[in-house]
Write a structure and sequence with these properties.
CATH superfamily of the domain at 2-174 and 219-246 and 287-303: NAD(P)-binding Rossmann-like Domain
Helix content: 25-40%
Structural class: alpha/beta
CATH class of the domain at 2-174 and 219-246 and 287-303: Alpha Beta
Largest sheet: 7 strands, parallel
Order of helices and strands: EHEEHEHEHEEHEEEHEEHEHHH
Length: about 325
């Protein structure tokens, strides 16, 4: 059996979709469906069972359910991913304590354990974006990133990172993210703005070394994020923390122009003031160093920003389809 926490979420459901394409169907999805349309991400996917997170936590992690079932892989992608979440106690329980419990459970069963860390742990990037440097010096800018950083440190301190892999996803975008509301990518939100108003809105820069819309990110298509995740699940000797990015920084202006091009429209970009709650907590430049995962044997090419945006916009956003619904 393969366990995917967050399996109805963005990267999690994309992972299940790809596993199905590879012939895997004995999958347990663990998530919190809530009242939004996240259930649509499960449309067309094949899996053995679904379990709510709290039930899984009580019956499996704290009980003895599944003791007679062989679990091969555990992909722990479930977390509160809202960078604006202010409830630190919730973040510590959901992103830190729950991660400890599932890591200990998986490793005790000798299951391959791969979990989602985050590029947000790098903070403002004052120490760079290397996945081979010391992690204790990193200074996250929000509670979400702090909870992820604490689990990375715990996994390192306890030796768990010598037996598993943590993935620092950079700016992942693509189909199945619609339920994330404000945490959706600018591709998703920008498409809606262009559809409804004919223009896209980007933040002004409040740093003189960056022009408006020239803030830079390492954008990664979800299919590449999933391919890297499966690579680490398959390779039991690839342990430790790994960046999952394209290794190239592109501007928000580049991204906006790619969306307009995918819609065959001329760019119309409006620059707006950055919200007060983001000032001082905003990353102006991120670029993953991906030499470590390459050295581990990952050789697949990274989808270009323009090709990824075109595929996402034309095949998923315009027809309003999720991965399983589109086939």
């Amino acid at each position: 059996m393969i366990v995917v926490t967050g399996g109805a979420g963005f990267i999690g459901s994309a992972l299940v979709h790809r596993l199905n394409q590879l012939g895997a169907e004995d999958i347990l999805i663990v998530d919190v469906l809530g009242t939004d349309d996240k259930w649509r991400n499960l449309n067309g996917l094949v899996f053995e069972d679904y379990m709510e997170r709290d039930e899984f936590r009580e019956l499996v992690l704290r009980g003895n359910a599944f003791d007679d079932i062989n679990v091969d892989w555990v992909a722990h992608l479930g977390a509160c991913s809202a960078t604006t979440e202010r409830d630190a106690a919730y973040l510590m329980d959901n992103n830190y304590a729950f991660s400890q419990e599932i890591a200990e459970w998986a490793l005790a069963r000798e299951a391959r354990f791969v979990y989602a860390s985050s590029a947000a742990t790098y903070g403002a990037g004052e120490h760079g974006y290397s996945d081979v440097g010391p992690i204790s010096q990193l200074r996250p800018l929000n509670g979400y990133a702090f909870s992820k950083q604490l689990f990375d440190i715990w996994a390192m301190r306890t030796g768990a990172l010598d037996q598993c892999a943590g993935i620092k996803y950079f700016n992942v975008f693509g189909p199945n993210e619609a339920h994330k509301e404000d945490m959706r990518s600018v591709v998703c939100k920008g498409f809606e703005q262009i559809r409804d108003t004919g223009r896209i809105r980007l933040f002004k820069s409040d740093r003189p070394e960056f022009g408006d819309g020239e803030q830079m990110r390492d954008f990664l298509y979800v299919r590449d994020a999933v391919a890297m995740t499966i690579f680490l699940l398959e390779n039991t000797t690839a342990n430790g923390l790994f960046n999952a990015g394209g290794g190239v920084a592109r501007t928000w202006n580049d991204l906006a122009r790619a969306i307009f091009a995918a819609l065959d429209k001329e760019p119309v970009i409006e620059y707006i003031d950055m919200p007060e709650n983001l000032r001082g907590k905003y990353q102006y430049h991120t670029q993953a160093e991906i030499g470590k995962i390459r050295l581990a044997g990952y050789t697949a090419p990274i989808t270009t920003l323009e090709d990824a945006v075109r595929d996402y916009v034309q095949n998923y956003l315009v027809p309003d389809l999720r991965l399983g619904e589109a086939g």
